[in-house]
């Protein structure tokens, strides 16, 4: 391939749908000549018109001057067939997800372009190894996976197939940068990097629903207010579409030999079978009006008329919990008086386990998540058989200080500890099996899914040892390998190292 930064670089794009249009736009604004082909009659023309309209809007918004816009438009050529790709330096395929179609298309492209022309697929779900298996020169084939909408989503995954050369990877990284994207290099594996890493957020949310720990609104509110996500897992699934995220989850779960850390649970499939596919159908985890706004969802905020607790006991010594309670204006008793609420701040445990371990009266036990506590919201939970008066008195005490309160059923790891620990653990496992380097895993999840912290940065922020403790408690309580700690995370936790430390 020619120097990716040369002014004469020509990129071919096959497929003028939404993704193809975005790739064309960032290629044109990156100073490259583009040849666009679409097999549908009028498809290339419609794609061109859509791209030019968006370039015009950039001018209107002051993000591109008129001379630059006209120059960009002038670099686009529509071609009638694959033969028009002759002379391209790189060709990017952006047709729909059909393996046989892609193989046939790649064979036609190979017969047309020179041996040093790179051929990349924008596939999001098909292994590059499968696409390249029938190719003549597999070393120049890779994935170049953009995210929709391409002009707004800065990330692009450069997917290294089993036979992709380093020169090809380096050239595609440079090409992605010229397009104004942030490239990350990922291993050819089910879901690549972002779709693989995103499973923990949504599937653990589904698991919480499966166990009836909390409602969709409660789960989403906790993850937004206590952890900084723009959307909670239920909102996100409704936005992407249940008909999209369930099949992707199944593919990745199957692709990794049914690893229980990647599986989803019945409420996910129940929504799919019911046709409740999210915003697009007007119903998913939530109901939506014609504008796409959620309607009729119960409040995630616990409400009661109870008076705030004046005094509390602690289930076990805990300096941070004592400071929290005293900061709310409560007296922390030196010994249980037999009537006041009993506070605990478990890490990974549920209330039933903690009550059994400490001997605390489960009827008055109220647990507070101090690991993921924000000024906006606190999460509390109680065990089976608890007195609602104790819960309500603690909720009122917290609410008096200005925090909203979400009260959930008993759960190892509350809501946030569970989801966050699973995100960190999956990121660590991806590092362990070489999906990508730790820093690139973080970059991909922050840019591709708008995570406030990448999985390994999250592990470091919470503490690898604490993340491991949460997972270990959940595995012990549930007996499930779903919560087994990645060796990557375990080794670094035991040695007191950052989750980013390489092997």
Provide a short characterization of the protein structure:
This protein is α/β, with parallel strands linked by helices. It is built from 20 helices and 16 strands.
Shape: elongated
Largest sheet: 8 strands, mixed
Low-confidence stretches: none
| Assembly status | single chain
Top CATH class of the largest domain: Alpha Beta
Q: Any descriptors?
A:
16 strands; Rossmann fold; single chain; alpha/beta; 8-stranded mixed β-sheet; N-(1-d-carboxylethyl)-l-norvaline Dehydrogenase, domain 2; 6-stranded mixed β-sheet; NAD(P)-bd_dom_sf; 503 residues; 3 domains
Please outline the helices and strands.
Blueprint (H helix, E strand, L loop, with lengths): L9 E5 L3 H12 L3 E5 L5 H18 L5 H9 L1 E3 L11 E4 L5 H14 L5 E4 L6 H5 L8 E6 L8 E6 L5 H13 L3 E6 L6 H4 L1 H12 L5 H10 L7 H8 L1 H14 L10 H8 L13 E2 L5 E2 L15 E4 L4 H9 L3 E2 L9 E3 L6 H8 L6 E4 L8 E5 L6 H13 L3 E5 L7 H17 L5 H12 L5 H8 L1 H15 L8 H9 L8
Parallel strand pairs: 1-2, 1-4, 2-3, 4-5, 5-6, 7-8, 11-12, 11-13, 13-14, 15-16
Antiparallel strand pairs: 6-7, 9-10, 14-15
Helix pairs in contact: 1-2, 2-3, 8-10, 8-16, 10-11, 16-18, 16-19, 18-19, 19-20
